């Protein structure tokens, strides 16, 4: 088992666009296994490669503890959104890169996505509710977007101190690395 270092809010790598994976090889598969180890150790349900400082279009989701959601861990490589519903929903989100903050975020209620899995096979999901939300949250990471970006100015103001604290923590960790 190998844990990756989770990049914290304020780290510029979280703001960059991830590149497509060209070849799904043993290196990528080992990295994906490490992503799962890291996500489970941190009690997360989704994790994207840029959160570990690896700017490739890879994310994972495991909602198997949640009733009514897919029962298997899922890997998404080079994902493409095929369709998003007009209808939106609001629910609370958190992020392993933004510890201690959970806020309501409005997102499309449904999404259709295709991607490759770690074996290079095509996967296709039509997701709704929490699963759709998780996919959209993780795809955002591949574009350098974080859920706090969607918050209104009043909410952002209220979180300002906490976010600045995370930025300081992130800076200290980057200097130590
Ligand atoms: Ni996140």
Instruction: Report on the biggest sheet.
Output: 5 strands, antiparallel
Low-confidence segments, given as residue ranges, are: none
Bound molecule kinds, no repeats? nickel (II) ion
Taking Cα atoms only, what radius of gyration do you get, to the nearest Å? 16 Å
Shape: globular
Strand content: 15-25%
Any idea of the CATH topology? Answer: Peptide Deformylase
CATH architecture: Alpha-Beta Complex
What is the succession of H and E elements? HEEEEEEEHH
Q: Determine the fraction of residues in helical runs and give it as a percent range.
A: 25-40%
Total strand segments: 7
Averaged pLDDT, please? 96
The spatial strand order of the largest sheet comes to 1-2-3-6-7
Full CATH superfamily name:
Peptide deformylase
Number of helices: 3
- SS-derived structural category: alpha+beta
Structural domains: how many: 1
Termini separation (Å)? 21 Å
CATH class: Alpha Beta
Provide tags for this entry.
single chain; 177 residues; alpha+beta; Peptide Deformylase; five-stranded antiparallel beta sheet; two-stranded antiparallel sheet; globular; binds nickel (II) ion
């Amino acid at each position: 088992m190998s844990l990756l270092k989770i990049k914290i809010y304020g780290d510029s790598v979280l703001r960059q666009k991830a590149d497509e994976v060209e070849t799904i090889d043993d290196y990528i598969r080992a990295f994906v296994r490490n992503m799962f180890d890291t996500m489970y150790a941190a009690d997360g349900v989704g994790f994207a490669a840029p959160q570990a400082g690896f700017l490739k279009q890879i994310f994972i989701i495991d909602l198997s503890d949640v009733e009514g959601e897919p029962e298997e861990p899922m890997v998404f490589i080079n994902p493409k959104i095929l369709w998003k519903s007009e209808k939106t929903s609001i629910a609370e989100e958190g992020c392993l890169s933004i510890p201690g903050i959970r806020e309501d975020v409005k997102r499309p209620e449904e999404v259709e996505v295709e991607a490759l899995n770690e074996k290079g096979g095509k996967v296709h999901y039509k997701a709704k509710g929490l699963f759709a939300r998780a996919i959209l949250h993780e795809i955002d990471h591949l574009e350098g977007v974080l859920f706090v970006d969607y918050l209104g100015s009043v909410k952002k103001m209220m979180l300002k101190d906490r976010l600045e604290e995370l930025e300081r923590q992130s800076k200290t960790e980057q200097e130590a690395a």
